[in-house]
């Protein structure tokens, strides 16, 4: 263990770093720093940690990690430091090789207190600044930015000089600026530059950092901080708006999903189906049953449960819809108020049937792995389930539009809607089309139930929560017009979310309802009313 | 219009109805107060309150029948007017509690003390006076209905559109009244009442008096409705129901007719709610639930829309059935029953009980006078040929 050996090691190491392009200058401080751990004094330990952290030695990371886990041992007598591995072997901290001979008899843990732990955390941060993984370097830079620990500065400077990834480099620059701002020996010009850098970052943390500036700063710094602060506020306001708009889109897609089936039954056929919400509920329960079967029979298929549930939900809700149309609604065509009452009765029956079969409590429907979690996009957080629901809603919408436009069934549906007698004269079996149209609307409600089971409680009352909103969307958008439903749903969703911050969730909803009530007075046929000369009988 | 011979204000059926209501109002208190509890004929105080509740529902059904049966306005938000009247009465009753509340605050109701409100909100002023509360019971639902109807009827919102926005109205009110900061007790509502006009609300005598007053209100409401539907005004209403556009083309201001009858109906619903609250002892936001309003509509449908007597009968029958089913072992099946009632009535009994009886009687009379007619009369609502969406 002579110094020559260390020199060679250091040389090899430096060579390695040079090849890696990190430009690390020298690595001797590591061995010197180790002595600090043997004095059993917190101040010495802190100095040693800082020295080790910036040493650049490959052993620094395992050593710091060991210290965090209370696995760093020392012997005061031998002036030696050991790393105890997780399987209880002793390594010589200076070389990383297994310790020779028996362990010294005065071996003991290097003790920690809160101050040491704080320094340790910062040290971990500066160590990972050199990690080969860009993501980890970025996280480390963020950690330094938040801790503003001046001791990380040397490591940061080195890492910054070597950094090639633009995103990580910016984060490091911001971290460096954060340290500069709080450091006592930074020059005025440095601080102003730092403030500009932080201002460009433009998030809540940056604002907090500027707020923490001491009040007795010079006028230059104060004016720079004010300018940066204004910039941050602008940026925050923009991101806030984007986030709210995203929530609004998400709510709008849920509304659209719930209303799109209704747009067929009410909008196209003119049938008031108060049991529409229960079709959504049936779809959600279908998902629940599918997931239960998968859990007990073949858990490996869980990620595909929604894909399996989709066609089943369509079939279940669609056949119930056809059944309802054949047994009840077809006798009530032309009597919309009676249809309303009869379907309300059906909704009560369906709710109670599900309550009897599955119990009144909420059922647990799980998220497949690809629908859980979230990711950051700029200044906003996007959850996967919301994102997929938006995508799914648009897919359903496009598929439905295409179906109405390009298939024979769609053609016949439009024909029957526009002129029932003429369609019948042309050989279209109108009663069959009625049943199929109603089944289609109900089936789409069932599909909506599959998606809504991912974000809502699956209970017998699930449908009740959507029925009024769905009618509002269809009526607002314009009856008999799918595009109107689309625009109506997203308008209402976004308006609702933008009103929430200053009106509160409930008042916002009330305001929307009042708005729609007033809107219907103004345009009784909705936003995109079909033009025509028809007058009610 | 053979089904409704509306020549005089009080025809035979109306007279029978009024006599029955009067007999009920006399018989129940007598059986409760004068017949000893040991007797088989004794009516318990619980039943007195229950019957009082049914009578209030009867008034609500009457108000719905007036607009639905005669003017074709299907309101799915009449529960809101009922509940507003109830809240006005509840506010009066809250102010009567005074220092007997849990927090013994002479001015503030308990829930306001609990929420640390410093003083009474402005809109609670005056409710300690019964006369003011009575005025509000009629005025608040009436004003809401007037404003709502003024907008709706002027812009010719009709049919299911009107039904849906009335439903949205009661839904919005429900959301509002559930909030604590609305100042109406949040989801607990108003309860723990002590006195009404100095009488204990729990006392037997008060309950019987409330029942008698409810019956009186029902009778008065019925006579008002009869007066309207048998007048020329009522004929115009029926014309609006059956052919709104044609009536307009004949020069009638359809929206004024509808607005008047809608506002009056809301006032009646408010009175029903006000009488309901002291008898059940609580008013809370669940009264605003859209489901309640739709249920009230089905009472009218079961009894027979456009008959007035049928609406009251329907309210009594359906609510008695509800009490019977939900209090026994059959409770889980009540919703099946109610649902089947909705479907069955609309499909099989579109005229309702009273409507079918009247129809049957008039058929027999026709058969006597002219042997030619058979039972193939057009139904009350002639089905139109097609579901029309493209209008």
Trace the largest sheet of chain A across and list its strands: 3-2-1-4
Q: How would you describe the shape of chain B? A: globular
How many structural domains does the protein architecture of chain A include? Answer: 2
Radius of gyration of chain B: 22 Å
The termini of chain A sit apart by 105 Å
Structural domain count of chain B: 1
CATH class category of the largest domain in chain A: Mainly Alpha
Task: Tell me what you see in this structure.
Chain A has 537 residues and is mainly α. Chain A has 2 domains: 3-196, no CATH class; 240-522, ABC transporter involved in vitamin B12 uptake, BtuC (Orthogonal Bundle), CATH 1.10.3470. In chain A, 67% of the residues lie in helices and 4% in strands. In chain A, the strands form 2 sheets. In chain A, strands 3-2-1-4 form a 4-stranded antiparallel β-sheet. A two-stranded antiparallel sheet of chain A has the order 5-6. In chain A, β5 (374-377) and β6 form a beta hairpin. In chain A, α11 (219-268) packs across α19. The longest helix of chain A is centred in the middle third of the chain and has 50 residues, at 219-268. Chain A is elongated, with a radius of gyration of 34 Å. The termini of chain A are far apart. Chain B is an all-alpha fold. Chain B has one domain. Chain B has helices at residues 12-33, 45-71, 78-97, 110-114, 130-154, 159-177, 204-230, 232-242, 244-249, 254-280, 290-303, 309-326, 334-348, 352-369, and strands at 190-191, 195-196, 199-200, 282-283. In chain B, the strands form 2 sheets. In chain B, strands 1-4 form a two-stranded antiparallel sheet. Chain B has a two-stranded antiparallel sheet with strand order 2-3. The longest helix of chain B is centred in the N-terminal third of the chain and has 27 residues, at 45-71. Chain B is globular and about 75 Å long. The interface between A and B is large, with 60 and 57 residues.
């Amino acid at each position: 263990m002579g110094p020559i050996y260390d020199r060679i090691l250091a040389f090899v190491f430096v060579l390695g770093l040079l090849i890696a392009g990190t430009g690390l200058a020298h690595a001797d401080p590591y061995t010197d720093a180790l002595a600090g751990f043997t004095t059993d004094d917190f101040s010495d330990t802190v100095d040693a940690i800082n020295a080790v952290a910036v040493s650049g030695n490959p052993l620094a990371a395992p050593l710091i990690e060991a210290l965090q886990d209370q696995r760093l041992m020392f012997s005061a007598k031998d002036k030696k430091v050991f790393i105890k591995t997780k399987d209880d072997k002793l390594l010589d901290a200076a070389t990383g090789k297994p310790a020779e001979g028996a362990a010294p008899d005065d071996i003991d843990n290097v003790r920690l207190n809160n101050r040491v732990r704080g320094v340790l955390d910062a040290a971990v941060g500066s160590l990972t600044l050199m990690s080969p993984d860009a993501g980890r370097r970025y996280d480390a830079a963020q950690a330094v930015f938040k801790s503003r620990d001046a001791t990380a500065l040397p490591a940061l400077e080195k890492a910054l000089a070597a950094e090639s990834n633009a995103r990580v480099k910016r984060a490091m620059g911001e971290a460096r600026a954060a340290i500069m701002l709080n450091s006592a020996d930074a020059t005025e010009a440095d601080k102003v530059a730092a403030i500009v850098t932080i201002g460009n970052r433009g998030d809540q943390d940056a604002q907090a950092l500027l707020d923490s500036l001491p009040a007795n700063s010079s006028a230059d710094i104060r004016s720079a901080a004010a300018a940066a602060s204004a910039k941050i506020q602008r940026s925050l306001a923009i991101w806030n708006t984007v986030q709210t708009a995203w929530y609004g889109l998400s709510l709008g897609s849920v509304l659209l999903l719930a209303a799109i089936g209704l747009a067929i039954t009410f909008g196209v056929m003119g049938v008031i189906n108060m049991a529409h919400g229960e079709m959504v509920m049936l779809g959600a329960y279908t998902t629940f049953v599918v997931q239960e079967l998968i859990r007990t029979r073949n858990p490996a298929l869980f990620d595909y449960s929604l894909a399996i549930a989709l066609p089943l939900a369509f079939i279940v809700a669609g056949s119930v819809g056809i059944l309802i149309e054949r047994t009840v609604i077809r006798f009530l065509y032309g009597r919309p108020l009676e249809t309303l009452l009869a379907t309300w009765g059906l909704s009560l029956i369906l709710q109670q049937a599900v309550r009897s079969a599955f119990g009144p409590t909420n059922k647990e429907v799980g998220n497949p792995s690809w629908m859980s979690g979230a990711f950051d996009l700029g200044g906003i957080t996007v959850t996967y389930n919301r994102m997929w629901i938006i995508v799914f809603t648009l897919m359903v919408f496009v598929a439905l539009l295409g179906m109405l436009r390009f298939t024979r069934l769609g053609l016949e549906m439009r024909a029957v809607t526009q002129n029932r007698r003429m369609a019948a004269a042309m050989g279209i079996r109108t009663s069959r089309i009625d049943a199929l149209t109603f089944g289609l609307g109900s089936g789409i409600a069932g599909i909506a139930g599959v998606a809504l089971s991912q974000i809502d409680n699956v209970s017998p009352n699930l449908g009740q929560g959507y029925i009024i909103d769905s009618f509002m969307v269809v009526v607002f958008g314009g009856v008999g017009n799918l595009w109107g439903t689309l625009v109506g749903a997203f308008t209402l969703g976004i308006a609702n979310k933008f009103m929430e911050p200053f009106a509160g969730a409930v008042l916002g909803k009330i305001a929307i309802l009042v708005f729609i009530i007033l809107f219907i007075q103004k345009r009784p046929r909705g936003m995109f009313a079909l033009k025509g000369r028809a007058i009610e009988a | 219009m053979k089904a409704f011979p509306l020549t005089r204000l009080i025809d035979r059926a109306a007279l029978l109805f009024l006599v029955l209501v009067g007999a009920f109002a006399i018989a129940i208190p007598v059986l409760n107060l004068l017949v000893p509890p040991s007797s088989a004929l004794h009516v318990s105080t619980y039943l007195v309150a229950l019957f009082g509740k049914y009578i209030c529902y009867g008034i609500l059904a009457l108000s719905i029948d007036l607009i639905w049966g005669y003017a074709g306005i299907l309101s799915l938000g009449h529960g809101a007017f009922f509940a507003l009247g109830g809240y006005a009465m509840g506010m009066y009753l809250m102010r009567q509690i005074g220092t007997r509340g849990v927090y013994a605050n002479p001015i503030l109701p308990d829930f306001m003390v609990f929420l640390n409100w410093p003083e009474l909100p402005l809109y609670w002023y005056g409710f300690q006076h019964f006369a003011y509360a009575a005025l509000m019971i009629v005025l608040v639902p009436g004003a809401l209905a007037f404003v709502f109807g003024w907008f709706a009827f002027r812009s010719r919102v009709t049919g299911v559109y009107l039904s849906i926005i009335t439903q949205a109205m009661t839904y919005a009110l429900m959301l509002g009244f559930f909030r604590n900061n609305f100042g109406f007790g949040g989801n607990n509502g108003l309860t723990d009442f002590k006195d009404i006009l100095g009488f204990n609300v729990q006392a037997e005598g008060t309950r019987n008096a409330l029942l008698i007053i409810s019956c009186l209100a029902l009778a008065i409401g019925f006579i008002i409705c009869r007066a309207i539907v048998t007048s020329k005004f009522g004929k115009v209403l029926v014309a609006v129901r059956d052919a709104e556009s044609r009536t307009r083309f004949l020069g009638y201001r359809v929206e004024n007719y509808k607005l008047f009858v809608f506002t009056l109906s809301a006032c009646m619903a408010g009175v029903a709610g006000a009488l309901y609250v002291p008898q059940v002892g609580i008013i809370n936001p669940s009264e605003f639930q859209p489901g309640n309003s739709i249920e009230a509509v089905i009472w009218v449908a079961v009894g027979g829309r456009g008959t007035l007597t049928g609406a009251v009968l329907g309210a009594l029958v359906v609510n008695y059935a509800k009490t019977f089913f939900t209090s026994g072992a059959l409770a889980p099946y009540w919703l099946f029953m109610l649902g089947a009632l909705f479907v069955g009535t609309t499909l099989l009994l579109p005229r309702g009980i009273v409507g079918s009886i009247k129809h049957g009687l008039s058929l027999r009379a026709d058969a006597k006078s002219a042997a030619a007619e058979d039972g193939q009369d057009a139904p009350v609502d002639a089905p139109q040929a097609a579901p029309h969406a493209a209008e």
